[in-house]
Structures are given as structure tokens and as C-alpha cells.
Amino acid sequence: MGGNKKRTFQKAFITRITTHSFLSLVAQLNKAHIKTVRSMGFASLLKVDLKKIPQKFLKCVVERFDHYSNYFKLLDGEEFPVTTFEVGMPIGGRK
Predict the structure, then answer these.
(1) Burial annotation 59-91 (CB, 10 A radius, 16+ → b, else e)
(2) Residue ranges of the domains in the chain?
(3) What pLDDT does residue 11 have?
(4) Closest by alpha carbon to 20, among 44, 48, 51?
(5) Which of 6, 18, 40, 57 is the least crowded, having the fewest Cβ atoms under 10 Å away?
(6) Would the CA dihedral through 84, 87, 91, 95 be positive or negative?
């Protein structure tokens, strides 16, 4: 049975990135990339100054967000939904 079957592989889509890696990635964007980022409604990501956000705070935010339910849990146990509106993600723009 040595047919010519093609093997398929699944790659994980990673949604987390270190602040250093993000800043490095943004610094490497050329003019065409920057124009595309802006046209898709993500221009604010080009201006984020992650050097001023304490790592302890970032860790706390990540630990308290449930990406399955899109809810954020406060210290007192209260939860609230997090939508694209709350985090300032672009609504509309180019796909």
C-alpha cells in the first residue's frame, strides 16, 4: 500500500506574542505593510508603547481573561463580557 497519499499537517495559530517580539515586528514593517495595517483599521497598534505597561499588569490581564467565553473576571469574582467594542478593535475596514 505505498500509494501517493499526501500528508496534511495542522499548524497552530498563535495569538500571543511577547512585547519585545511585537515591538520588533512593528519596527520591521515597510511602508506598504504600514499602509495595509492602517487600511484594515489597526493603525492604533502601530502607536502602542508597550515599554510603559508593567509586565505584572499584563500577566494579570491575561490570567483573568477566559478566551473561550470572552469574559474577564475581576478580583471580586464579578465577570463581564469583552467584545470588539470594549477593546477598540476595528469594526469594518478592509478584510
Answers:
(1) eeeeeeeeeeeeebeeeeeeeeeeeeeeeeeee
(2) 18-53, 63-87
(3) 63
(4) 51
(5) 6
(6) negative
Cell numbers at residue 94, please?
478592509
Using DSSP, state whether 81 is helix, strand or coil: strand
Residue 55 and residue 32: Cα distance in Å, rounded? 31
pLDDT block averages, 10 residues each, the chain of length 95? 63 68 88 90 80 78 84 87 66 57
Question: CB-based contacts of 61: which residues, under 8 Å, 6+ apart?
Answer: 72
Cell of 48: 502602542
**Residue 69 DSSP SS3:** coil
Residue labelled with grid coordinates 520588533: 24
Q: Looking at this protein, which amino acid is placed at residue 60?
A: C
Alpha-carbon dihedral 70, 62, 19, 52, rounded to 10 degrees: 110
If you ran DSSP here, which 8-state letter would residue 46 be given? G
